[in-house]
Design brief:
The protein has about 200 residues and is an alpha/beta fold. It is about 15% helix and about 30% strand. The protein is globular. It comes from Actinopolymorpha pittospori. Pfam families: RibD_C. One of its GO terms (molecular function) is 5-amino-6-(5-phosphoribosylamino)uracil reductase activity. InterPro entries: DHFR-like_dom_sf, RibDG_C, Riboflavin_Biosynth_HTPR.
């Protein structure tokens, strides 16, 4: 059976940050010049119809992988019940494999999403996601730290960046710790509040 691609989508500032400093449960994107919920960095989400093609691609994967902080704030030993940032009906509607150091039973959610908590590393998470996806794509959902690990390991085929017209100056940055990459630009589209760029990762 043929396998799908490993893709990722990430919104970043013009200077490459996916979140500002001082991330917390109340401010998951830290200091982005707004209220901390990414209202500046992710302003383009306010008009999903303008970005329908990009949004459809983001949700087309058959399985997803995310870092623990993308699921929810770091809590040591899961010290209280926590369903993540994404509410009772997350947008994935597919299996989601969460990288963590703390084991937890699978967590079914509304709409067909189930979170699986993976404690043995990025390659194990990818193997499980590939099996779940069949011949469909696997999406590395983020954040930037998780994407950087997969880029450094040479495990991403397509990188889709959504570049917001602002700078953050500090925070969590894409490509930190990643060896030099050769990228082939596949598409580029400038919209009113963001530029969408897709790269094929060659090496």
């Amino acid at each position: 059976m043929s396998m799908g691609r490993v893709v990722c989508d990430l919104t970043i500032s013009a200077d490459g940050y996916s979140a500002g400093l001082n991330q917390s449960e109340e401010r998951p994107f830290g200091d982005d010049g707004g209220d901390g919920w990414g209202d500046n960095l992710h302003a383009w989400y306010a008009d999903p119809e303008e970005h329908r093609a990009e949004v459809d691609k983001m949700t087309a994967a058959r399985a997803f992988i995310m870092g623990r902080n993308m699921f929810g704030p770091v809590r040591g030993e899961w010290d209280r019940p926590w369903n993540g940032w994404w509410g009772d009906d997350p947008p994935y509607h597919a299996p989601v494999f969460v990288l963590t150091h703390h084991a937890r039973e699978p967590q079914p959610m509304g709409g067909g999403t189930t979170y699986f908590f993976v404690t043995d590393g990025i390659k194990s998470a990818l193997e499980q996601a590939r099996e779940a996806a069949g011949d469909g794509d696997v999406a590395i959902q983020g954040g930037a730290t998780t994407i950087n690990q997969y880029l450094a390991a040479g495990l991403i085929d397509e990188l889709r960046l959504h570049i917001s017209p602002l700078t953050l100056g500090a925070g969590t940055r894409l490509f930190n710790g990643v060896p030099p990459l050769k990228l082939e630009q596949v598409t580029s589209r400038a919209a009113s509040s963001v530029t969408h760029v897709t790269y094929r990762v060659l090496s």
